[in-house]
Amino acid sequence: MVNKPHKGATIAIQPRIRKGAFFDAAWRHGCRKFSVYNRTYISSTFSNPTEEYWNVTKNVAIWPVMGERQVEISGSDAAEFVQLLTSRDMSTCSVNQCKYALITDESGGIVCDPIILKLSNDRFWLSTSDCDLELWAKGVAVHAPFKDIKISDANVSVVQIQGPKSPNVIWDMFGEEVLDLRYYWHRTVNFQGTELRISRTGWSGEFGYELYLENYEQGDALFDALIDIGKPYGAAPGAVNQTRRIESGILSWGVDMGVEENPYEVGLGRLVELENDNKFIGRSELEKIRKQPLEKTLVGLILEGPTIEANETPWDLLYKGEKIGRLTSLSYSPRLEKNIALGLVRNEYSTVGTELSVYTWEGEKPLYVSNLPFLPKLQTGDARALLNNSKI
């Protein structure tokens, strides 16, 4: 039986799902499509995906991403405990620096892929993907030899400011000195007498920033201010876009990878730093795995032809009728004018150009393995070089 997309489905608004500081602002600005991420509503679409795609690639998207929760780890033993959780070498992380990191289990599987923000030598935020990272950390802490550790949800709401004109918005909002913030670093800024944290990070593949709001009551004021200040630069509310992140080869935990995958299979082996004596969960297994041939590999996939609606579940990938993997994420790229996807395949079928097939909403379709990324990431570089003072 061929599956059909569940158009018109809704999510009930209920007390057990958190709203986040920007929920009401997102609603007022037209968001009617939400998903649930870390037991929190996350805004999906304000207008339509194609319009929001062009806005994040040409102007500025203001995305209230309240489900991106911050697990706070603090105390005199916090640094050692964070190192126990991750394969990244945290001894090279300075205060006010961020690191994209992997949390692995005892078999080397990927439990989570947070961005770790070092706020001080004894305080960290783990900006988490959609996983039970707080519970995982608390479970590890029960058996860890550290005494002074506090683990909690920091109750922070995040809004992303993404796109080539994001430096204009940030300058107008917080002043010129913020333009000196380097990629994967963070600092504090002031908004109406309240200290906010801002980082040069994001999930779009475009140049951008993330703002971390601790004062829930300021959610409306902060979101409205970003929209108003950003209007001359084409700023509009909208998700940073599924298509753009697939183009950039940015992975989604729980979709493109999870505990059944190890870092080497999904192209993240660089995040397993073994040239040190750090003790972290899964180290012994990962030392073995990196010396072994890969069983499966994450690849890019291209499906020619008309737009195909995104998959709701992983779709089987076939080679001459035999299942050899799964398609994990699918979207139509307006710039490439092709359906593009990410998938996991048995390693012998990962060569670029390999022809496969997949059953979509419209039956079986041919596709082939492609290089990643489909289009480059534009996250690095100098904010001042991007400044565009022309009003659109």
What are the defining features of this structure?
about 400 residues; alpha+beta; Gyrase A, domain 2; Alpha-Beta Plaits; Elongation Factor Tu (Ef-tu), domain 3; 3 domains; six-stranded mixed sheet; about 20% helix; globular
Structure report:
The protein contains nine helices and 21 strands. It is of the alpha+beta class. It folds into three domains: 137 residues, Gyrase A, domain 2 (2-Layer Sandwich), CATH 3.30.1360.120; 84 residues, Alpha-Beta Plaits (2-Layer Sandwich), CATH 3.30.70.1400; 79 residues, Elongation Factor Tu (Ef-tu), domain 3 (Beta Barrel), CATH 2.40.30.110. A hairpin with a 2-residue loop joins strand 8 and strand 9. Helix 5 crosses helix 6. The protein is globular.
Distance between termini? Answer: 49 Å
Mean pLDDT: 95
Alpha-beta content class? alpha+beta
CATH class of the largest domain: Alpha Beta
> Main sheet?
6 strands, mixed
Number of domains: 3
Total helices: the number is 9
- The secondary-structure element order is HEEHEEHEEEEEHEEHEEEHEHHEEEEEEH
Give the strand tally. 21
Per DSSP, what share of the residues sits in E-state strands of 2 or more residues? 25-35%
User: Judging from the principal axes of the Cα atoms, what is the shape?
Assistant: globular
Strands ordered across the widest β-sheet:
12-13-14-11-3-15
Which CATH architecture of the largest domain?
Answer: 2-Layer Sandwich
Computed CA radius of gyration, to the nearest angstrom: 21 Å
CATH homologous superfamily descriptor of the largest domain: Probable tRNA modification gtpase trme, domain 1
* CATH fold group of the largest domain: Gyrase A, domain 2
Provide the low-confidence segments as ranges: none
Helix content: 10-25%
